[in-house]
Specification:
Blueprint lengths: L25 H4 L20 E7 L3 E7 L6 E6 L30 H11 L11 E4 L6 H15 L3 E7 L6 H13 L10 H15 L2 E7 L2 H5 L3 H9 L1 H5 L4 E7 L10 H7 L2 E4 L5 H15 L7 H14 L2 H17 L7 H21 L4 H12 L5 H12 L3 H13 L3 E8 L2 E8 L3 H8 L6
Parallel strand pairs: 4-7, 4-8, 5-6, 6-7
Antiparallel strand pairs: 1-2, 2-3, 9-10
Helix pairs in contact: 2-3, 4-5, 10-11, 10-12, 11-12, 11-13, 12-13, 14-15, 14-16, 14-17
The protein binds adenosine-5'-triphosphate and magnesium ion.
Adenosine-5'-triphosphate (ATP) binds next to α3 and α12.
Length: 452
């Protein structure tokens, strides 16, 4: 335990410790690092016996705390600032972002094998099997496709795999433009060539190269809803009729397999996919997957067992893995805000209710007019949103007069989005407009900037 931080020698440097010349002694070099105003919890003081300092050209100072029989603790401090706002518990924050492809794709071996079997004929210059991946949100369908794309690209040039998100590529032209881009590495603007000439160019090139084509149509529901699904499928799968090219397979990805009934009978018979089901995860599966995020994304011992239990419980309650991953990230922010070194269930539950409130806010905002939103954003951006000041800033932004402004305030109050509370101001009684939702969420969702 502590000896008062005086004279014990630090343990021998380990591999990841900065080299000798980079370090300075804690006692001599940084006397100001423990100001009385700093919360104790920010430093492992009780057990700390020595520290070393490494500076970088980016005006950051890294503190390395040596503790007997414990791992090295590393804290980043902005030089010249003792606010410690650069400290982080994340080893790799990208692990919690939507585009992260997990290192271990757990509990989906069966689905991956089935998908590989569908794609395999393409590696022998045959058409891949038409396939449908379906199942509830966040069950790993897109992730399975990303794994497969990577695998095919690393394995063989005989097959061209093309990923299309049909929420972005909403027309047959846009789908073929994606294939064109993958094949020629050239982006086609939407107003470019006629569809037929793009198709001809694509299929001729594939025939000439003797390559098969696997098109992964993610969010396929979007094409079913806008009625382009039949044309896209027929254009791809009946290319042999016009261009003599028949090595195409389509993998459609969607939530509800039943929605395929919207296809024409002719398309159904041309497409006729194999089905691969992505069943919802159970509690143990959620736990395994979420534990991996802790392992890859956070420093050791940061996420307590209790916090993990709480995240798993909240994830099971909503049946949504995406929610769980987001919740973990948010809980880490909560702990960082308090400048503590471990995330506990308290942080998880606070974040869960914040996420619920953000979801509610987003649905409330969708019903507001642009004028209402601009006013709400003005309120959220002001440090002290007393009514007169809000009006001044809002009028400058929008030119709206006082009568209309008062109506809008009343409307936001009536919708229970803000409270207008009477307070004593410098010039007598005035109203302070207080949002009922988190101002950070309001600014984020309405795309606002900082406060004033
Ligand atoms: N088995 C798994 N192992 C690790 N992470 C997973 C697994 N399944 C899903 N995920 C993660 O869950 C999130 C959602 O997964 P994904 O986007 O693949 O779901 P989806 O089934 O395509 O959902 P949607 O129908 O909403 O598009 C991603 O962050 C993904 O990394
Ligand atoms: Mg998806």
């Amino acid at each position: 335990m502590s000896n008062g931080g005086k004279s014990r020698r630090p343990p021998k440097p380990q591999n990841n410790i900065p080299k000798k010349g980079d370090m300075g002694a804690c006692g001599g070099g940084l006397p100001a690092l423990k100001p009385p105003s700093m919360p104790k919890s920010q430093f492992p003081q009780a057990e700390m016996v020595a520290c070393a300092v490494q500076t970088s050209p980016k005006a950051h100072t890294r503190l390395f705390f040596f503790q007997p029989n414990k791992k090295l603790t590393e804290i980043n401090v902005k030089r010249g600032s003792l606010l410690l706002d650069d400290q982080t518990l994340f080893k790799d924050e990208s692990v919690f972002t939507p585009t992260y492809v997990p290192t271990d794709f757990r509990h989906r071996d069966g689905q991956l094998k089935a998908l590989a079997a569908s794609i395999k004929p393409g590696l022998r210059s045959q058409p891949p099997m038409n396939t449908l991946l379906y199942g509830p949100p966040a069950t790993g369908k897109t992730t399975a496709v990303k794994f497969m794309l990577k695998e095919v690209k690393e394995t063989s040039h005989k097959l061209l795999p093309v990923y299309v998100n049909c929420e972005d590529a909403t027309t047959p032209y846009a789908v073929f433009a994606k294939i064109h881009e993958a094949l020629f590495d050239v982006y086609l603007p939407d107003t470019g060539k006629p569809l037929e000439s793009v198709k001809e160019k694509v299929f001729k090139k594939l025939s000439k190269d003797g390559r098969s084509l696997a098109v992964f149509l993610d969010e396929f529901d979007a094409l079913l809803l806008n009625s382009h699904a039949d044309k896209v499928l027929v254009d791809l799968l009946k290319a042999s009729d016009t261009y003599g090219y028949s090595q195409v397979g389509v993998v459609a990805i969607m939530i509800d397999a039943g929605a395929l009934s919207r296809l024409d009978d002719k398309t159904k018979s041309v497409f006729n996919p194999l089905h691969i089901h992505f069943a919802p995860y159970g509690e143990d599966e959620f736990r395994d997957i979420l534990k991996d995020r802790v392992r890859y994304g956070l420093y050791a011992d940061v996420f307590s067992e209790g916090a993990l239990d709480a995240v798993v419980a909240e994830t099971v309650k909503r049946g949504d893995l995406r929610f769980g991953i987001q919740l973990m990230r948010q809980a880490v922010y909560e702990a960082e805000k308090e400048a503590v070194k471990a995330v506990t269930e308290k942080h998880v539950y606070a974040s869960a209710s914040r996420q619920d409130s953000a979801a509610e806010l987003s649905s409330v905002l969708s019903a507001l007019s642009d004028e209402d939103k601009a006013l709400l954003l003005t309120i959220a951006e002001l440090k002290d949103p007393v009514s007169g000041r809000v009006y001044e800033v809002y009028r400058r932004k929008t030119g709206v007069g006082i009568k209309k402004y008062n109506e809008l305030v009343k409307k936001l109050e009536h919708l229970r989005i803000i409270d207008a509370l009477y307070v004593e101001g410098v010039h007598g009684r005035t109203r302070r407009l207080i949002p009922r939702f988190d101002v950070g969420d309001i600014r984020r969702l309405l795309g606002g900037g900082g406060g004033s």
